[in-house]
Amino acid sequence: MNVYSSAHELASAIKASNEFMDYDKLRKEIEQDPTLNQMISDIQKRQIEIQAKQLSGEEIGQDATAQIQSMYAMMSSNSKAAEYMQAEARFAIMMKDVYEILSDVVKINI
């Protein structure tokens, strides 16, 4: 068995999955709307900032929590943004599952 061939097959299977195709279609639609694209980008950046603080052991204040909740509320009121975030979450879950399967084989903790 050629590992590289299998990796390419897995990549093709991921690209053909409903999770990826839904996510990719919506991502392209979002990119066509600069305002919506910026709103999603802003919330993703803020999420990463908060996660980085948490990983470094820094306490997350109520202001940051309230801000992210407010941003999510705004996004969920936009049906296209909400649909995109749901598709992104489904794709991320699928990818997490794939990583866990692979890491289990080589005993890597992710």
Write the layout of secondary structure elements.
Elements: H1 3-16, H2 18-31, H3 34-55, H4 62-76, H5 79-106
Can you put this structure into words, describing what you see?
This protein has helices at residues 3-16, 18-31, 34-55, 62-76, 79-106. The chain is flat and about 55 Å long. The longest helix is centred in the C-terminal third of the chain and has 28 residues, at 79-106. The model has no long low-confidence stretch (mean pLDDT 90). The chain is built from 5 helices and no strands. With 110 residues, it is an all-alpha fold.
Short description:
The chain has 110 residues and is mainly alpha-helical.
Number of strands: 0
Secondary-structure content class? mainly alpha
Global geometry: flat
Q: N-to-C SSE series? A: HHHHH
First and last CA, distance: 26 Å
- Strand composition percent: under 5%
Radius of gyration: 17 Å
**Low-confidence sequence ranges:** none
| Major sheet description | none
Number of helices: 5
- What percent of the residues sit in helical stretches (DSSP H or I)? over 70%
Question: Mean pLDDT score, rounded?
Answer: 90
